[in-house]
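Example record for the data management plan.
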Amino acid sequence: MKDFEVGDILPAREAIAMLNEVDLAPPIEIPAIPVEADEANISDAERAWLHKEIKRLKKERNALVLAHNYMPKDVQDAADVIGDSLYLAKVGTESNADVLVEAAVLFMNQILAITKKPHQKVLAPDLGALCSLAATADVEKIRAWKREHPDGVVISYVNTYVEVKAESDYCCASANAAKVLLHVLEHEKGKPILFLPDVYLGYYAAKLVEKQGVSLDLLWLMMGACHVHDAIRPHHVEEQRKLHPGAAAVIHPECGCTSACMRQVSEGGVAEEMMQFRSTQGMVKFAAESKADTIIVATEVGNLYPLSRAVPDKKFVPASREAVCAFMKQNTLRNLYLSLRDMKHEVTVDPELAAKALRPIKRMLDIV
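Corresponding structural encoding:
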């Protein structure tokens, strides 16, 4: 097996062959989770006061609070809108609020800073909310690939920073990755495609390419993964299926169990309706439509809260209770309040980079 570094770009066949043998450790340090991210560590009196003040400040500042599905419960309860990266990008882009406060990770705040209207400000509750997956995307390696493939098409996952998006032709989220790839296959026929940075979502893309009868030789993948999703392995899903007979399973395609679970379905080991691959937002629709009373959820554990609120008659079980994103949890009820009170942590993007990144972002928002 060839040596490689996280962020290296490999032909899809080679990357897929290495999936279960490689160490995709994140290139950045994982922070400690703030004590107040656990709702048990905030008194009822403080929680009530913070919610009251946040509500007052939202009205006073004409602010919209957006929260990702992985946020602590207290933050989700304070938000006007809860959703995945694609949904929040669409809602935020369409909003006319004067202030957009997004409790998420910083690449999401950057998207709003690129698409915002002139009068708007974009705030982040905490600037430590980075992303281990976004950190794997090496912009210099992308530029090198583009020099070697001048007619190539770059599809970057939404979990990338603005410098990478500026080098991309298309962006996609897990919710519309298949649609973006199908669009590229139809409109950019015969061109080499670089899909980055998540190699597990890349595997999902590769299976789609094969179903379309397109040679995998045209597809390249970047070796990188979200450290939280990478740690969710096939044995986690299998253990929960044994503990909960008759349960359905819904899996985020960033997970380290994706390739094995997809093989199970394709080989008939698991019925398709009992195991599907969805974005965090798509999991709600799956849960609502599934005939199963119990749903095993393979993604960050924060998503169980919005799922249980949206589909209260179902039982949701995490594939792994250890799937906790410390970066997402840097956003807390306290620093959400402080961000609104002091109008701090404004996120801005260099105008030249923003102009380059706008085209692939608009394509992501249009192809749904």
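Summary line stored alongside the record: The chain has three domains: 9-28+132-225, 35-130+327-353, 229-318.
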